[in-house]
Specification:
Elements lengths: L8 H4 L8 E2 L1 H4 L1 H12 L4 E5 L8 E7 L4 E7 L5 E5 L14 E3 L3 E2 L6 E2 L5 E3 L20 E5 L2 E5 L8 H9 L12 E9 L3 H6 L7 H4 L20 E4 L4 E6 L18 H7 L5 H10 L24 E8 L3 E5 L4 E10 L2 E10 L5 H22 L2 H9 L5 E2 L6 H20 L4 H9 L5
Helix pairs in contact: 3-11, 3-12, 8-9, 11-12
């Protein structure tokens, strides 16, 4: 009989249960239709950062199949962030055609209707030929939008059940003070892979895989327990979101949260960086004091390293449903796992650093870019294989261990929200769930 030497995370959250997880929600198109309706079209979704629309008239467009929508996000003449459906009020063409840009107005290329940055209809060619046209009634259709620490979120529901603040603060209120706005150097990768969005996200919210998938890259950069296991320090599950705290090897470039900052502890890491990974050690050494900003007196917000672990490296924050935010003192990662179909996901990865002032700092940054790229490629290498295996339906369930509780939490929250939506619509959630998992049409 298996025995655990320390309290189980599952003991802390008995409401999540310990049963195996059904495979159906990862492969069934009908279940995905329920997710679209009751999760994605009702929930706040991360779409970008305020730096992308710094000036009046700046805009970007997000085409979002999971919402069956194209969304414009812009900054109006009052410096407010606005969001609209990318649909003309006349004959339903688009009014923004580029992925991003700067404009004075949005114009439909079909018949020339023009809209101001606040969405109001301002120009109609041959207006006199319409029948009592009241332009005030035919502006762009607004989308709920708000910001949190510079991140822009939208909600397709015109009257969201929760404000963005109420949605996030119960779990992440104590992230106040993290210097998101100071990390102004960014690089990114986008790709599409053939797997369910939950299959993809699940691979990023547990450490059980690290010793195997990342054996040749970062496994030695994370801290092992006395039995040699790569267990997280702690995990927290909320009503929607979850957090995972990870310990690292501070003598490695990946596991050192003080690299390039000049912060306390950086010297020990540099002096201890050996020759096992010569380039990594060099990157650590030349990066010292390489940032334009002084992080030596940075005080972490309470939400980070909440256990006070001496070898803490970073925290993983998963903002429901599909936004992964990993925070360290010296950079942060922001990933979207956005579904396109029940078995296809677009992965949008962005990594934000402070700007560097030295060539050593730039070398460190480029080294980390390549290192993170390789780690991501290792992670992504499992996804399509896993999805293909799931779709054989050879296995009906997945078996989880204690430290995969974040995978379980995600599944429980998804099902809870779908059940609540079905009940609100007057449908029997048990019958609908059974129909979906059987591949039926809802």
């Amino acid at each position: 009989m298996n025995q655990q030497s320390k309290p189980s995370l599952h003991d802390r959250y008995p409401e999540l249960g310990r049963d195996n997880l059904p495979v159906g929600p990862y492969v069934d198109e009908a279940w995905y239709a329920l997710e679209k309706k009751y999760l994605f079209k009702k929930t706040w979704l991360h779409v970008g950062r305020v730096e992308e629309i710094a000036k009046t008239g700046d805009y970007f467009v997000r085409d979002m199949p999971v919402l069956d929508s194209s969304i414009i996000v812009t900054r109006d003449r009052k410096k407010q962030v606005r969001a609209f459906h990318n649909v003309c009020s006349h004959r339903l063409n688009r009014v923004a055609y580029e992925p991003c840009g700067t404009t004075r107005k949005f114009f439909c290329k079909f018949h020339g209707w023009a809209y101001d940055l606040d969405g109001s209809l301002t120009g109609v060619p041959d207006e006199k030929s319409f029948f009592d046209l009241d332009k005030s009634k035919y502006g762009l259709t607004p989308v709920s939008v708000d910001t949190w620490h510079g991140f822009i979120f939208i909600c397709l529901d015109p009257e969201p059940e929760l404000s963005l603040k109420d949605f996030l603060e119960p779990m992440y209120g104590e992230l106040d003070g993290y210097p998101f706005e100071k990390f102004t150097a960014c690089y990114s990768w986008n790709t599409v892979f053939d797997c369910n969005w939950k299959t993809a996200l699940d691979a990023f919210q547990e450490t059980y895989h690290v010793g195997y998938v990342h054996a040749r890259s970062i496994a030695d950069a994370l801290d092992k327990d006395e039995e040699g296991n790569l267990h997280p320090i702690d995990g927290v599950c909320g009503a929607h979101h979850r957090r995972l705290s990870i310990a690292g090897n501070p003598k490695s470039v990946y596991g050192n949260p003080k690299a390039a900052t000049g912060g306390a502890g950086a010297e020990d890491s540099i002096s201890g960086s050996g020759t096992a990974r010569a380039i990594a050690g060099k990157a650590l050494k030349v990066a010292k004091d390489g940032t334009k900003l002084d992080f030596s007196d940075l005080k972490l917000p309470k939400a980070l390293n909440w256990t006070g672990h001496p070898n803490w490296a970073f925290d993983i924050n998963v903002i429901f449903p599909d936004f992964y935010l990993s925070c360290r003192p010296n950079y942060f990662q922001a990933y979207n796992f956005r579904p396109i179909a029940h078995n296809k996901t677009i992965f949008e990865a962005r990594v934000y650093y402070p700007e560097m002032k030295t060539s050593g700092g730039r070398f460190y940054q480029e080294y980390m870019k390549v290192a993170l790229r390789d780690v991501l490629l290792e992670d992504l290498s499992t996804l399509e294989i896993t999805q293909a295996a799931a779709e054989t339906r050879a296995k009906k369930e997945m078996v989880l261990q204690d430290y995969e509780i974040m995978v379980r939490h995600q599944a429980v929250v998804v099902e809870r929200m779908i059940r609540a939506g079905l009940e609100k619509d007057g449908r029997d959630p048990d019958i609908a769930r059974q129909t979906a998992l059987a591949g039926g049409i809802l």
